[in-house]
Amino acid sequence: MTTHPTPVLTLLAAALLVLAVPAGAATPAELLAGYSASAGAPAQAARGQAFFQSRHGGEWSCASCHGAAPTGPGRHAATGKAIEPLAPAAHARRFSDAAKAEKWFRRNCNDVLGRECSAAEKADVLAWLNTLKP
Ligand code: HEC
To answer: Taking phi first (over 0 means left), then psi (-120 to 50 degrees means alpha), and beta for anything else, what does residue 80 get?
Structure first.
């Protein structure tokens, strides 16, 4: 006996494929609200600034690559490559894609702290970045 996928199954598979693609589009305010909700406490911009500019006992701070004032361009501490401004007010595409923000938080936090950032730390950093004006 041969088995053929029924049209219903084909449709189901297509629907699952569509659902599997993450809906990444977001605004900085939405991402901040999400991180704050996960943290279970309101974000603090001043704490985010201190976090961003601290070396946390290692070689680099976030500012080592993004600059102490991330409304302007940064420079990669290892490769010297230019990095576009991180503050949303200075760069329209920043924090507009949840998956991209998460990917770079993971990578950069590991580089600076040797671990991932907590939801509270991400909320604090983003709260501070959202206050910056170019
Ligand atoms: C060694 C250099 C380096 C350090 C240190 C660094 N970053 Fe980055 N960061 C980058 C690069 C490179 C990119 C990706 C290129 C780009 O988007 O311009 C990036 C992108 C990001 C993004 C993506 C934002 C978006 O939506 O486009 C976030 C968030 C971020 N960094 C946060 C941090 C935080 C928080 C720290 C400190 C814990 C940090 N970075 C430290 C190099 C660095």
So the answer is: left
Q: How far is the CA of 131 from the centre of ligand 1 (A)?
A: 18
Instruction: Find the 105 Cα to ligand 1 centroid distance in Å.
Output: 7
Angle at 59 between CA 50 and CA 116, to 5 degrees: 65
What pLDDT does 60 receive?
98
By residue count, the chain amounts to 134
Q: Contact 95/27 with Cβ under 8 angstroms?
A: yes
Domain 26-131 has CATH 3.30.70.330: no
Res 19: pLDDT? 46
Rg of the chain on CA atoms, in Å: 19
Give me the pLDDT at residue 12, please: 52
By most ligand atoms within 8 Å of CB, the mutation choice from 27, 61, 66 for ligand 1 is 66
Average of per-residue pLDDT values in the chain:
89
pTM exceeds cut of 0.70: yes
Determine phi and psi for 75, rounding to 5 degrees: -145, 125
59 lines ligand 1 (CB under 6 A): no
